[in-house]
Amino acid sequence: MPRIWLGTFLVAAVSALAGCRAQKPAPPAPPPPRVTVVRPATTPVRDYWVYNGYLNTTESVEVRSKIRGFLTEVLFKEGTEVAEDAPLYTIDKREYNTAVRKAEAELLKADAEIKTWEAQIEQSKADLERVSGLIKVASASKADLDLAKATLGVRVAELKAAEANRDAAKEALHSANLILSYTDIKARIPGRIGRTHVHRGNLIQADTTLMATIVRVDKLYVEFDAPEADYFAAQKARIRAHPSGDVADIEIGVGDERDFPHRGTLDFRDNRVETATGTIHVRGTLDNPLLANNVRLLYPGMYARVRVPKSDYTQQTVIPEDCLLSGQEGRFLFVVAANNAVEKRIVTVGAPVWKAPPPEPGKAPPSWIAVNPTPAPPAEGQPPAPSRRPIKSIVAITAGLFPQDRVILDGLQQARPGAPVAPEEWNLIPPAEPKK
Length: 436
Fold this sequence. Notes:
This is Efflux RND transporter periplasmic adaptor subunit. Residues 60-213 form the Multidrug resistance protein MdtA-like barrel-sandwich hybrid domain. Residues 358-389, 417-436 are annotated as: Disordered. It comes from Gemmata obscuriglobus. InterPro entries: MdtA-like_b-barrel, MdtA-like_BSH, RND_pump_MFP. This protein has helices spanning 2-23, 94-136, 142-181, 228-241, and strands at 34-38, 41-45, 48-57, 60-64, 69-74, 81-82, 87-91, 184-186, 191-193, 203-204, 210-215, 219-227, 249-254, 262-269, 279-287, 303-309, 314-320, 325-327, 330-336, 342-346, 348-355, 369-371, 388-390, 393-399, 406-410, 422-429. By secondary structure, the protein is α+β, with helices and mostly antiparallel strands. It has 3 domains: 34-45 and 314-429, conserved putative lor/sdh protein from methanococcus maripaludis s2 fold (Beta Barrel); 48-91 and 183-310, CATH 2.40.50.100; 93-182. Strands 1, 18, 19, 20, 22, 23, 25 and 26 form an 8-stranded mixed sheet that branches. Strand 13 (249-254) and strand 14 form a beta hairpin. Helix 2 (94-136) packs antiparallel against helix 3 (142-181). The longest helix has 43 residues, at 94-136.
């Protein structure tokens, strides 16, 4: 009997406890997480093909001598820029000065022979006139007349031969002076000269001894290989946009440059596609001006990044790159629907539009920013919350996003598809245009 009573008591106690728990109110649901949202902006965007290439000189000259002789002077500083016709080397002139003086003497001799034959011709003319007068009075025979005529003819022929010798002597003197001028070796093009391969006292062989090289540096080539698919697409775009021309601008970046600050123009495409690689060789030209302290930034042989525009600028939807996420399905972002629920949106990412430059002391370059138009007042004793957020980079979205969408910028870690959020809308502001 006591056991039955104890069991009944325990059952009643458990039922009472369960009833108390059922009547206890549930805890309140946590508030939805706060997120920062921005609406996409619209800006002109241009898409590009990007290639790897290298810089090359537009002109290159090997400095060699036209004559043989001992080198007497080196007149330039190695590794500097030289102007066209600037003196570079001097070869021993003594042998070639002697040849010039000999040619001058031959010319004087030819002039003297001409004067001699001119005098003898005058004498022969006088003899012919005298014999002709004697023939009339029968004081001279016809043989005397024939001899006088023949003598005049011979002397006229000798004069022509002397004149020919004079012309030959003039050409010999010109040749000797030309060869003498080769003892002063000058720059054939303006550019940067390398190290000298020969020094004073060395015997220089004609046409064979490489003395130095000069490369032009004020204007350079940029050379790269483009896939045939890109080239085909570019040709079709060019036909549509520029039926009468095939000139396209290109942009070049070198070294640690974050952007493509150098501008050039395509000027050459090879006449065939390389079947082994499926690429075509393309070349552009760009200027390489003198900067501070007479320094040129670009150098032949440097690695270069080249981008070629696919089309003209078009208005496209852009967002901060921080909004983008990646998954197995590709690139996506979170947007906030009208009921403040999170929606996952698959998008197609287009060309990069802008990237924040590296900071420089004392400079604040124009940049994209997100601004809170209605910042909440700070709590008592607390500093105000930030109302401006710098944007690191901007990309174009070509599909999957609409101008009225609210895209989550901050708070992506708390956002879940289908879950509610408390959005705080900020404005996406592009860089201010420079004042003209």
